[in-house]
Design goal:
It contains 4 helices and no strands. It has about 110 residues and is mostly helical. The radius of gyration is 22 Å and the shape is flat.
Length: about 110
C-alpha cells in the first residue's frame, strides 16, 4: 500500500472511533474553558471603569502564569536535550535560556 492510502484509512478510522466513543474534539467550543469565571465570580462593579481595571488585572495575572509555564517547559526540554545529547547541545541550550529570559522578563515585569 502507498502512504496516501494508509493515511486516508487512518483518518477514516480515527473519525469513526471518535463518533462511536462520543469524544468531543479538542477544538470544540463546548470544551473551551471560561477564563474569567474564577476571577470574576461573585464580584460586583459600580462602574465600567472598575470592570475595565479588573479585566486588565486578570489578563496581567494570566500573562504572568502563561510565561512562567512556558519558561518551565523550556527548562524541562533543555534538560531533556542535555541529558540525551550531552555537550553537543549544552552550549546552544545555554544561549537559548539566556536569550529567552532576556526577551521574556521585560514583558513579564511590566
Amino acid at each position: 500500500m502507498t502512504i496516501p492510502i494508509l493515511l486516508s484509512k487512518l483518518k477514516s478510522s480515527c473519525k469513526n472511533s471518535s463518533r462511536i466513543s462520543g469524544i468531543t474534539p479538542p477544538h470544540s467550543p463546548d470544551s473551551a474553558p471560561n477564563l474569567g469565571s474564577k476571577y470574576f465570580y461573585g464580584k460586583r462593579f459600580s462602574s465600567n471603569s472598575d470592570v475595565k481595571t479588573a479585566a486588565e488585572n486578570s489578563l496581567n495575572l494570566q500573562r504572568l502564569d502563561f510565561y512562567q509555564a512556558r519558561l518551565n517547559k523550556l527548562d524541562l526540554r533543555s534538560d531533556k536535550c542535555l541529558n540525551r545529547f550531552g555537550d553537543y547541545v549544552e552550549k546552544r541550550s545555554a544561549s537559548i535560556h539566556l536569550n529567552s529570559l532576556l526577551y521574556i522578563l521585560p514583558i513579564v515585569n511590566k
